[in-house]
What does this fold into?
Amino acid sequence: MYTKQRTYKMQHKNLGIKLSLFINYFVFAILLNSVGIVILKAQEVYGVTKVDASILEAFKDLPIAIVSFLVASLLPKIGYKKSMLIALGIVAVACLGMYFGDTFIAAKFLFAAVGAAFALIKVSVYSSVGLVTNTQAEHNSLLSNIEGVFMFGIAFSSFLFPFFNAGSSPSAWLNVYLFLCALCVLSFIFLLSADFDAEIEKPSSSAGKDILDMLKLIVKPLIIVFVSSAFLFVMIEQAIMTWLPTFNNEVLKIPQNLAINMSAILTVSIGIGRIAGGFLVKKVSWLVIVGISILFAIIFVLVILPMAVNAEVGEIKTFADIPMLGYIFPIIGLFLGPIYPLISSTTLNAYPKKIHAHISGLIIVFSALGGILGSRIIAYIFENVDTTMPFRYTVVPLVLLAVAVFFLDKWTKSLKAK
It folds into this structure.
């Protein structure tokens, strides 16, 4: 009887922790991935060029990389709950700064704050998953579901921003940041009340040694191929996600608000793909899922994208006026979706839980660098090389990703066999 009660309490406690992780990831999804929308608005409202506007991606991703590298190994000592509370507080203040600032400089500071705070959130979330799961299948599934919820948060932002953008005033869209500030406060209150005292083996070493230990991981073959995979994937995903609103608006000639709404198809598709991947991985090898996903992503870029660009389109005023091919290309997200959480979970499960924070830090650092590079490359191609199909250049990193994933599977199996 005592064992059953203890098991029930543990399950109830874990459910509270999981809900906290879902909610916080949802909030940051809205904030973090509004960069594509703000890039579009910056060109219109603040009069900056595409390449200049793309710097917002760097203001978002560089703080993610720097903060992740510096504090990832410290978070077990600080506490994952406290780290997430700090992150929510930082972003609530940043949202108010954007609302009252209303300049391109304010947008830079907003994304710098969001990036730094997200580093705290993501390391905490990725490290906490291992504390509330017992098997690799459970870990794969929960991480895929959390990342799926993240994508639904992004999809929500695709409708949230146009809702506030509908006002007659040029600055009406800034009201969204008052709403987001309130959402951060609500999330803060929920997390504060959550039973989040999961046990973890806390490192006893100094901060300098912790950072050195994290650096030592980079020379391991498995970590090298993994961070390469994360880098390549995020370079692909962020390039498409960030520039899809602009692509819809300028190439497919879809009105601005509809162009933003249409980008939700991509994010919802990625979310569905991740949740589906989390379900399928309990029955099918993660390598099979990822391999098929990469193959279909390449087909979408080489076949569906040109068909969408070359389709004859009349004047577009409503969703009904958009040709079917305009809806099909963003469904590439179904195949992009499962890749990132599955390769991340597989790598984390190959190592002890006590160093998951170190590995999570490396995941975030190289993901951020991939996001910066991907966005800048597409911005340059869009403006100077190929104004109609800039996304077709993502085929190169997709092929390289397929090679990296093959070696990732080989070395994770080798490590577990020792």
Remarks:
- The mean pLDDT is 79.
- The two ends are 39 Å apart (CA to CA).
- Residues 2-32 form the longest helix (31 residues).
